[in-house]
Design a protein that fits this description.
InterPro entries: Isoprenoid_synthase_dom_sf, Polyprenyl_synt, Polyprenyl_synt_CS. By secondary structure, the protein is mainly α. The chain has one domain: Orthogonal Bundle (Farnesyl Diphosphate Synthase). Helices cover 73% and strands 1% of the residues. It has 17 helices and 2 strands. It has a two-stranded antiparallel sheet with strand order 1-2. Strand 1 and strand 2 form a beta hairpin. Helix 3 packs antiparallel against helix 17. The relative contact order is 0.13. The mean pLDDT is 92.
Length: 352
């Protein structure tokens, strides 16, 4: 993919800054939930283990909080101005993860059992709903004079996220999905919330609409790059890094970008893959669960041979470049621009 290599220490510091600024407010927000939802949410965030003991779990990459606090600086505000937006976006993001894990049947997230596996499907649904409601409450209560404008952006992003999840589920039951459709789904499911994260801090910091819209475009295309990399990791990622099963997207019969791009190719590997996946679609979930590792490996090899892996890596780079171009005309401090560029570079070289 010829991706840039961001300074790992600088990126780690940037992500940690977003996480540390947002963490106290996020914990306080979750503490408002009624029992046992507060405990279930704490487990999901990695703050406690399944027995309620304090834990130092993997809380995720924290890209969205980092974007929210950096974008506040684009507007000339202190990074703290973006914290209510960072918390609100994280709450919506984790609402989607709780529901996604249940709908997809994923048993592992961040290297441990998912909420529905430990606490049951009902709690996963309720806690997800509670986090969604809490996001708007926090933003409107603590976002200052520009909270309403930020809340509108968050509401649009959340609606698009749900649209994208519906599209993703629908694709699983179709024999053919076009590349353009797949990109539209990714733009909704992943791009919308990252776009919101990239602009919400600036909105809370008093930025004008043109600045916020440029940051939104940056985030949207960064989200598409993020999803492309996620789709690569969903097939070829190391489970020790991703925290998910090997071949996780193939196990769920997802029409991810590598799969769709491979099926659209005109070569023998694409034809063989089409035959296999068409037959797979007719199998019951029970039959599909009996597949062994060699069968998933065969499908992954055909996707790569047909060109799906290379196309998706190239698409991640294209979306990265488009994201970077979106903010070229914005006036901002040099160190803030460097941070936005470093986050964009990190997206396309990450391994989890």
């Amino acid at each position: 993919m010829n991706a840039p290599l961001p300074d790992p220490d600088a990126v780690a510091d940037l992500l940690e800054r977003g996480r540390s600024l947002a963490a106290p407010a996020l914990r306080a927000a979750v503490g408002r939930l009624a029992s046992p939802m507060d405990t279930v949410a704490a487990y999901h965030f990695g703050w406690i283990d399944e027995d309620g003991r304090p834990a130092d779990g993997d809380g995720g990459k924290a890209v969205r909080p980092a974007l929210a606090v950096v974008s506040a600086e684009v507007a000339g505000a202190r990074p703290e101005a973006g914290v209510p937006g960072a918390v609100a976006v994280e709450l919506v993001h984790n609402f989607s993860l709780l529901h996604d894990d249940l709908m997809d049947g994923d048993e592992q997230r961040r290297h441990r059992d998912t909420v529905w596996k430990v606490h049951g499907p009902a709690q996963a649904i309720l806690v997800g709903d509670a986090l969604f409601a809490l996001a708007g409450e926090i933003l409107l209560a603590e976002g200052g004079p520009h909270a309403a404008a930020a809340a509108r952006r968050l509401a649009v992003a959340a609606r698009k996220l749900i649209d994208g999840q519906a599209q993703d589920i629908g694709f699983e039951h179709r024999e053919t999905v076009g590349v353009a459709e797949c990109l539209e789904m990714a733009g909704n499911k992943t791009g919308a919330l990252i776009a919101c994260a990239a602009s919400i801090g600036a909105v809370l910091g008093g930025a004008d609409e043109a600045t916020a819209d440029a940051l939104d475009r940056y985030g949207h295309h960064l989200g598409l790059a993020f999803q492309a990399v996620d789709d690569l990791l969903g097939i070829w990622g190391d489970s020790r890094s991703t925290g998910k099963q090997t071949w996780s997207d193939l196990r769920q019969r997802k029409k991810s970008l590598p799969v769709v791009a491979a099926l659209a190719a005109d070569n023998p590997a694409a034809q063989r893959l089409t035959g296999l996946l068409t037959a797979d679609a007719k199998k019951s979930p029970e039959e599909f669960e009996d597949f062994d590792e060699a069968e998933f490996a065969e499908r992954a090899a055909l996707i790569e041979e047909a060109g799906g892996r290379e196309w998706t890596a190239d698409e991640a780079r294209r979306q990265h470049d488009t994201a970077v171009a979106a903010i070229e005309g914005l006036t901002m401090p040099d160190h803030t621009r460097e941070q936005l560029l470093a986050l964009a570079d990190f997206i396309v070289v990450r391994e989890r």
